[in-house]
């Protein structure tokens, strides 16, 4: 069992700079062929091995010493984790010959019960963008930002949206305006991309909250207007699943929306909202190492209702903006006819 793709994370450093980190993610369907993975985790000692390897790589002997287990027993546990694709082992020179060094093969695994990924055999690259990683913005008050443990800056002061130290922000809201994100393309094989999918949690913005407050939220990629989704409201009737306990300012959660661009046009949760195709986007990316994503709530829209954008640790979905580049699969060569 192998990880289905390398996922590229775009993360802020504490100095406000953007760092890119490549990680391996395994996507599993809740089906019989995933049993080796689940069985590998159904053991306390193997979970302890993973805990140790999260800190540093370790040899069989070192794992045995920390777990108070024999090398033979540790070897069997490591083999189960290797077969599940969770751990990898390499042979390296040691003081007394070669030694087997174990390390994590995955950063993350996700179990899929039902989704819109389509064919599970499709390969893709994933880019994760924190909501604080926008490059440009133009914001109108009322507005504000919050981190996991406090309000960032001052509420209703748009100047804080330009602060270089906003890396901790995991919720932002504004009455009108836009934020524009650079999506890094360095690890994306643009020649093979056939579909682009962007998911995020968002809703309207109303003082306190108002579940019936509509807002037209628009999206653009590479300078092309994709279309408009009308948010049905600003939701605060219950606590968001991941919203911190200290937050008491109204909005608690949003809706998880999936924007898709393919050869047939642009879609929001499967409903067509525009005619821009993936080829239209790709034609603008020749020689580029980034793709711009603009999210707007225009003051002159039919429903000018602002927006809330949720990142990790806020709302109902513990995620940042997730971008998936799906690839065309290479054509398999035709089998040669068997010789007589």
UniProtKB/TrEMBL annotation:
HTH arsR-type domain segment(s): 26-120
Coiled-coil spans in chain: none
InterPro entries reported in the protein's UniProt record: ArsR-like_HTH, HTH_ArsR_DNA-bd_dom, WH-like_DNA-bd_sf, WH_DNA-bd_sf
UniProt cross-references to SMART domains, sorted A to Z: HTH_ARSR
Protein name as it appears in the record: HTH arsR-type domain-containing protein
PANTHER family membership: TRANSCRIPTIONAL REGULATORY PROTEIN (PTHR38600)
Pfam family, one: HTH_20
GO molecular function terms attached to this record: DNA-binding transcription factor activity
Taxon lineage: Bacteria, Bacillati, Bacillota, Erysipelotrichia, Erysipelotrichales
Species annotation: Faecalibaculum rodentium
